[in-house]
Design goal:
By secondary structure, the protein is α+β, with helices and mostly antiparallel strands. About 25% of the residues lie in helices and about 20% in strands.
C-alpha cells in the first residue's frame, strides 16, 4: 500500500499471484479496517511515527497498515480504476 494524494491505495502484493485475494486489486482504495475509517486510524497513529517529513511518516504508516496479528479482519475497499 502507498499513499497517493493522501489516500491509501493498494499498489502491490507480497504473495504469489495465485495466492492474492480475488476481491483486492492494484489501484483499489483502502477505506476502513474492522469498521474504523482509514483516515481515523491514520490520525490516531501519526503521533507514533517519526520521520523527517510527512511523506516519510505516511510511507511508514502505509507499510505497517496491513501488518499485524494473523487473524481475520474486515476491510473496506473503494474499487480503483
Amino acid at each position: 500500500m502507498r499513499f497517493i494524494e493522501n489516500v491509501p491505495v493498494i499498489t502491490g502484493f507480497t504473495v504469489a499471484p495465485s495466492d492474492q485475494p480475488a476481491e483486492l486489486k492494484v489501484g483499489d482504495v483502502f477505506t476502513e479496517l474492522d469498521g474504523v475509517p482509514a483516515h481515523q486510524l491514520i490520525e490516531t497513529w501519526l503521533p507514533y511515527y517519526a520521520g523527517s517529513n510527512d511523506a516519510a511518516r505516511m510511507r511508514d504508516i502505509a507499510y505497517f497498515f496491513t501488518r499485524g496479528d494473523c487473524e481475520n479482519a474486515g476491510i473496506g475497499i473503494a474499487v480503483g480504476h
